[in-house]
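Researcher: Re-running this chain for the archive, since the previous output was lost when a drive failed. Same request as before.
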Amino acid sequence: MKASANRGLLEGLLFFVVLGVIWEASVHVFDIKPYLLPAISDIADALWQSRAIIWENSLITLGEVLWGFLSAVVLGVLIAVLIYFVPLARRTLYPFMIALQSIPKIGLAPLIVVWFGYGLSSKVIMAFLFAFFPIVISTLGGLGGVPAHLEEHFRAMRASPWATFWRLRVPSALPNFVDGCKVAMPLAVIGAIVGEFVGSNDGLGNLILMATGSSQTALTFAALAAVTALSLALFYIIELLGRLVWWRSN
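Model: Regenerated structure tokens:
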């Protein structure tokens, strides 16, 4: 298993190296203007030269993402449990959430900024809105996906509703919940960036807008690389935590 994982990692790194070489060569062979598509070497140079400002803005965006994501996890799980166990909530909250999910979040972003200002709150709310729905749906699916024979076994043992929930439904829902978090985390990053695009004085989204507006395309790509790295790191942290929790629960 470990050898297979290492091989997969090596193949992934090799793919990106080959892609980078093709990118670099194509820019020079076809003489593409730097303001249209900078070479990988130019992006790496911009990343190094602007490392301080990129790091500072990455930390700001990271804080927005984490607050929004954690809020989505807490409220998403609570709403999912409520919808699953309370018929009235299933008839009211569930359709409301679907309707809310149908609204383009980018269209909501200007209103969120108007209501909550240019500070941290509006970015956290945008990250929350992007991440919330996948967590609710995945948790609902996990709660409802308990094998019938296990439910019968718990009923035969006359287990209390609380014991059934805690010892059967929660472990059964855990893989779905983790998968939902893995989907939600990159969406939370996107939500924070969208919020920064619409109204912000800092963060990676604001840096991208500033670099693009001043035709610093290499810096734009460097900031985009930072966003990608942030999203990937958070995704794999969620995956690692999910494996640890699953291992301990078994």
